[in-house]
Amino acid sequence: MSTVPFQPPPEVTYAVVETVAPLIRRVVARNPSRMTARGTATYIVGHGQVAVIDPGPALAEHVDALLAALRGETVAHILVTHTHRDHSPAAAAIRAATGAPTLGYGPHGGGEGEFSDGGADLAFVPDQALRDGDAVEGGDYLLRAVHTPGHTSNHLCFALEDPEGGGVLFPGDHVMGWSTSVVVPPDGDMRAYVRSLEKLLARDDGLYMPTHGAPIADPKPYVRALIAHRHERTAGILARLRAGDRRIPDLVAALYAGLPDGLRRPAGWSVLAHLIELIEDGRVACEGKPGLEGEYRVRG
């Protein structure tokens, strides 16, 4: 199995604004978990006139810290990478306090869905819809939307452009510093996720600042390792099906040795996403409708 060069989540101080690059500040929400690492990082880009990227969860402490950090400045844009409850809900409070418009690809694409983790923010609808390549410009920043469906269908990364090249990419949950991203059908799509990773390889971003985990200073080898990991996971699923495994819990037990119990269900969602792709390719069959409780076998 290829090794993704994950980094342990850095220690953080909650509800405190920190400068992490000349144009970039960060405030981390106090929502640590096995799915969010230390918590959700909200980024403030620019000075004087600023953009807020991923306002985060609707936690009063976090919203208050953000508004305190923004005091005396004009919020021009509130950008949302995607509609999960640790990313977008605080947009409403920041919008109400500042009058700034919210920008994102659109509302959540698949509703909660029968396989969903319940983490969708169904209330968020952006004031302005962004599409791939759209520019968002402020006083001293230019951010460009990069549509990266897969983790969710409405996932965007935001690229802070540098005229000299090698700018900063805010990849949301598409690429995280400490772990792979979970892909939850039906809104999550494994084929789209891998294609979106391949899309990033064509870019020249010099640094990634994920919403969860440490910055990624050498992004292309990291992204290549994520792609290789997904291809190897597909091969592993096929091998286990040929060996006689039929159900997702058995596949998870075999493929994710030592995984904590609390992460087995999320791993099952990603296995299901791989299986759906294999079914679409005609390589795997399912008895009945594909789902977490289905039985699967290799065709032929």
What features would you describe in this structure?
This protein is an alpha/beta fold. The chain contains 6 helices and 14 strands. It has helices spanning 60-70, 91-98, 190-201, 219-243, 248-255, 264-280, and strands spanning 18-21, 24-28, 41-45, 49-53, 74-79, 102-104, 128-129, 135-137, 142-147, 156-160, 168-170, 207-208, 284-287, 295-298. The strands form 3 sheets. It has a 7-stranded mixed β-sheet with strand order 1-2-3-4-5-6-7, covered by helices on one side. Strand 5, helix 2 and strand 6 form a beta-alpha-beta unit. The protein is elongated, with a radius of gyration of 19 Å.
Describe the structure concisely for a colleague.
With 300 residues, the protein is of the alpha/beta class.
